[in-house]
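INFO  loader      accepted 1 record
INFO  loader      residues=533
INFO  predictor   begin
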Amino acid sequence: MMDRKKKRLLSPLLERTLDALKGQRSMQTLENYHSSINKVKEFVGDGWEHLTVEDITRGWTDRFTTWLESHHGDKPQTVDFYLRTFRAVYGHALALSSEGTDGKPFSGHHTGGSFPAKRALRKEEVQRLLSPSLRQTLPENQREALDVLLFIFYARGMVFKDVYGLTHRMVTDRHIRYLRSKTGVPIDVEVVPELEEIMKRYHREDSPFVFPFLHEARIYCIEAADGDKNRVESLVRDIIDRGAWPSDDHQRLRDIGFVHETADSYRRTDSRDFIVGELERTLHNGRAGRLLEAYHDFHRSREKDTGNRVLTAIQTGQGVLLFDDTGRGLERAESYLQYNADNFFSPIHRNTDKLGVYYFSTDNARLVEKARECGSMFTPDDRCRFIPARAEFLRADILRGCKPAVECDMSPDLARYREMLKTFKLMENETPFNIGILDRLCRTGNLDEMPENRNFRHFCSFSSLHSQMNHSFLSSQADTLLGSSMRQAVSDTARRILQNEYDVRGYELLTPDTRRRREKKPEKTGKRTNIGR
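INFO  predictor   done
INFO  writer      dumping tokens
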């Protein structure tokens, strides 16, 4: 006998589930649910729109788990995260549904997280780390790493991100006073003699940082085998594990620059052997050694020469941030532009009519120092992400008399957003793209503005209206009262999503409590300084 039980599509059920959970779960939890659903979409591919609740069986979860492990084989916690969060949102969906399901599709899959063994050091291990004899056996970069480790130990477990951004201005009256990067809580640490010794060891007049070497550009050289260039990370790990390449091998970026600028073009290569060979030859050649020293002196003097430095200033409604003309400075300027693009529709730009980029030279030492300090506003990893809470915005007065080299209209509109991406060659982000589409739908009520692709995550919210408006009867009633009512329904749906799922300027829900909070507590996106008054 044919099974007459109606199958339930999973996609619209999950959409209704997420809508129902708003207000009951935190935004972070809802974002985790979205991430797990997107991972399932990636796994299912073109079959996502046809996937049903009944398809989620033990066999399906086995295949999903195998697929996750093949994509995140070295990260079991990531596999566990996607399994655990999808199981949770799937359970909520079943609870919302009028019918249950047969079987337990997630049974047998461990989703309780993994707990590593306790990682406290034994007394003998701590004594070995403190032994002067250990330091004498280590190369330079490992001695630096040891000092950072000991600094963290004596500083009561200061996290590395805070160590990276620690400056001498934070050290006063034999105390280190700083704001914890993760929580913003003020921390006060007494400077014990061991801490003082480490800080003196690395103190440099030309750097504001306690550990200047953490901010130096270094190149770690590795040669990938032919045909294996897409597996550099695993290749590096494999070579080091086999002992074929010392893990502490590195060259300073400035030394590599010297080699490339002075070596004969017909001999020059990018190989590690060539670079190391040229530097060794330099050490044994008096003239070449003097040239290398002069090369370093030139760059050190250029760093101190504020009169010939070109600064980049980026101005928004929040104020001005400065960036120097080093490679790191330019990378951070680009990252800050990407941050503004990713938050194009955010209320942080409620006072931003235009974003301006300026280039100017100055002999103002305080401005040059501010540009150098921009590094503390970005994460120290390769992604170099902007940290709004650490931003110190300058007043617009410093740009008086200057004209922007580039200017972008920051009106909250999808077309303006795409113009900004094109102007600065930035990456498109899913969130502002979705907000821009929803904004157009809200303004026009015209579903022709809605793209039918996976990048628009709210397609299911409009699928019913889309089907009705494309009905042979309704399609001819566009200019009637019925057509106007349907467009209003589209607009209202888009507005509801914008107000409840996003933080968009122009769509804020101003309840009395929200209004009182905004009047009492300013937005935490950095602070302004008095420079420029």
